[in-house]
Amino acid sequence: MIKIITKILKKSWKIIVGIIVVLLGILTLNTFRKRKTVEKIDEKLDENEKAVEKLQGKIEQVEDQKTEIKKKIVAKKKQIQKTKSSKLKKPTPKKMPKKTSTATAKKNIISKTKKK
Fold it and tell me: CB–CB of 108/100 below 8 Å?
């Protein structure tokens, strides 16, 4: 049995070594692929982190603008209320003397002159 195995090994040792080399090559190629994919994924993560940081800055700016606008709105509402209240509190116009007819004017003059 050992003689048969040794004969087979002597005849096909090149093929066996070739198969082993091919298997080792496949294993090493897979490790290189994994490294490259991991590097690509890391690069994409870094890019995403940078994009998130930029967006965070924009969000902060928008929030600042939002608070400023809210303050302006509150001020405008107060101003509107003041103008509405001032419209409601219009001063009453002075009563103008009614135009009197000549008959009433005559009576007034006569009544005033009789007192003297």
Answer: yes
pTM of structure:
0.43
Average pLDDT over residues 31-44: 89
Say what the alpha-carbon torsion angle 101, 104, 109, 110 is, to the nearest 10 degrees: 140
Q: What CA–CA distance (Å, rounded) separates 57 from 48? A: 14
* Whether the predicted pLDDT of 72 surpasses 70: yes
CA angle 104, 105, 108 (to 5 degrees): 85
Q: How far is CA 66 from each of CA 59, 61, 70, 73, rounded to the nearest angstrom?
A: 10, 9, 6, 10
- Say if residues 23 and 16 touch (Cβ distance below 8 Å): no
> Distance between CA atoms of 9 and 2, rounded to whole angstroms?
10
